[in-house]
Amino acid sequence: MTRLLAIAERHLEAYNTRDFDTWDTLLDDDVELVADGGRMRGRAAVRAFAAATMRAFPGLRAELIRVAAESEDTIVIEYRPVNPDPARHQWRLDGIVCEIYEVRAGRIASIHSYCLAGAGDSTATALRSLLEEQRALRRVATLAAGGASLCEILQEVAVQASRALGRESATLVRYDGDGHAVVVADHGNRVPLGMRVPADDDSMAAELARSLGMRACVGAPIRVGGCRWGLICVTSFDGPLPPGTEDRLAQFAELVGTAIANAESRAELRASRARVVAATDESRRRIQRDLHDGAQQRLVHTIINLKVARSAVRDDDPLAEILGEALRNAESATAELRELVHGIVPHALGHGGLHTGVRSLIGEMELPVRVDIAPGRLPAPVERTAYFVVAEALTNAVKHAGATSAHVSAVVEGDVLALEISDDGIGGADPGRGTGLLGLSDRVAASGGTVALMSPPGRGTTLAVRLPAGTDHRRNGRFERRRASDRAPIAIER
User: For the chain, what is the total number of helices (H) and then of strands (E)?
Assistant: First the structure.
């Protein structure tokens, strides 16, 4: 027995015994599978395709027929798909399957699988159907992992489920808690979103079918956190649905449940972060008021009293020097307190908006800063977040980057504020080496925004932030607006 044949036989034996742990030792991490024209990559994807095949054809075994060809790193085998218990499992796959294994470093790097000409149409059709199903599931999983909104995910599920199952339509409904369910996504049925139907599991699919004139409708329940969330249905207007549709649809229902749970967790996390930021901002404003109305006012009165006392003492009096020093200390303390209060929540930001707030900030810095922020107002939380981003970035430019100049720009693109701060410093900024950028990233994330840091060594630093600006900012403000096509792509840091 040759080395390649031994690998091929171990692969088939592991398939027949459902021993996926052995597969992990046989398949390359980046293994590629090409089956009936479809392509997938990665051990997890190949395992998922095999698992779907086994669910569709319980008990399926691959019986090796012959080695058709072999070279130094490639072997071509033929096997027959067999149903060992046809009395128990009512399925049949005709013909022969040819597979080409490419082996590198003792592991299978690629598998090309074909139904030979002698194979029946049912075999090729079944494999194509399973492959399309796995591709559809991966598309939905990728969309969910990318942080898409729940509405986008649900609509994509409806599209992919209808395509993968070979039906013209699919619908998702959600229970609303009062004995009804609401249509939340649809593809092909032309069902109006928001349509209400009875929420009884046994009658919901039938009610949808009757209301839309369908011939058949199959549904699978969607569960989130162990509780019923809704139902996904596929329908037919021209005849019954094929056997096994409900089992295949259950995979989409399971994926939807996971995606919904993840989306709700992300929403809860954003809401929690937003509450923390709002509470922090309120504490800042309270501290600012207390300092302004308390300590700062008392210091001002102290300065006045010291000036009065100093004017009443002759210059050659020993008390003159003591009163003078006390006056200087009081004035210095007042200036430092004023700077502290200004840094908490600048008065100019609250009264004049981001443009005025940033102008006030750079007026106290020695670093030359060019500002491209048009006058106009945004929601207060957006202005505060943008201001603190600018303040942190410029502080880093002065303290750590050795910059000689900086540039701040802010434009509104639709309902997103695009903020960019750049400097000509030494670059090489690392958010992991300090708390400032990480804190800003958390604050921006709490607002539903994104942060990108570009800081190549020796080429300066650019901090690009995108913040949802809401729909209530003043349309008569003079913030510049750009078309979506004008947006420059940014690398997301977090």
Answer: 12, 16
Q: Is 358 helix (H, G, I), strand (E, B) or coil?
A: helix
> Which phi and psi (to 5°) does residue 421 adopt?
-125, 125
Locate 75 and state its tokens.
């072997």
Q: How confident is the model at residue 424 (pLDDT cuts 50, 70, 90)?
A: very high
What average pLDDT is seen over the chain? 78
CB proximity list for 295: less than 8 A, separation 6 or greater: 337
CB 487 within 8 A of CB 450: no
> Per CATH, which fold does 142-269 belong to?
Beta-Lactamase (3.30.450)
User: Which helix or strand (DSSP H or E) is residue 430 part of?
Assistant: none
Burial category of 308 from C-beta neighbours within 10 Å (exposed 0-12, middle 13-18, buried 19 and up): exposed
Distance CA 220, CA 450 (A): 36
The span from the CA of 205 to the CA of 355, in Å, is: 56
DSSP 192: P
- Choose between 489 and 75: higher pLDDT: 75
Q: What is the DSSP letter of 43?
A: H
78 class by beta-carbon count within 10 Å (0-12 exposed, 13-18 middle, 19+ buried): middle
Range with the lowest mean pLDDT among 52-66, 96-110, 144-158, 189-203? Answer: 189-203
Enumerate the domain spans of the chain: 3-131, 142-269, 271-343, 351-486
Give residue for tokens 């929540």. Answer: 345
Sign (positive/negative) of CA torsion 74, 79, 84, 86? Answer: positive
Identify the helix (H) or strand (E) that includes residue 355: helix 347-363
State pTM to two decimals.
0.45
At the topology level, CATH places domain 3-131 in Nuclear Transport Factor 2; Chain: A, (3.10.450)
pLDDT value for 417:
92
Q: Token pair 């979103």 is at which residue?
A: 193
> Which tokens is 203 given?
């009658």
Across the range 191-212, mean pLDDT stands at: 67
CA distance linking residue 459 with residue 34, whole number of Å = 45
Contact assessment for residue 24 and residue 43, using Cβ atoms and an 8 Å cutoff:
yes
Tell me the β-bridge partners of 319: none
In tens, the pLDDT along 85-127 reads: 888 887 777 778 888 899 998 999 999 887 765 544 555 555 5
Picking from 94, 96, 160, 164, the residue whose alpha carbon sits closest to that of residue 129 is: 164
Q: What pLDDT does 98 receive?
A: 85
Q: For domain 351-486, is the CATH number 3.30.565.10?
A: yes
Tokens of 323: 């009163």
| Cβ atoms of 407 and 451 closer than 8 Å | no
Beta carbons of 465 and 450 less than 8 angstroms apart: yes
Torsion sign across C-alpha atoms 236, 242, 243, 245: negative
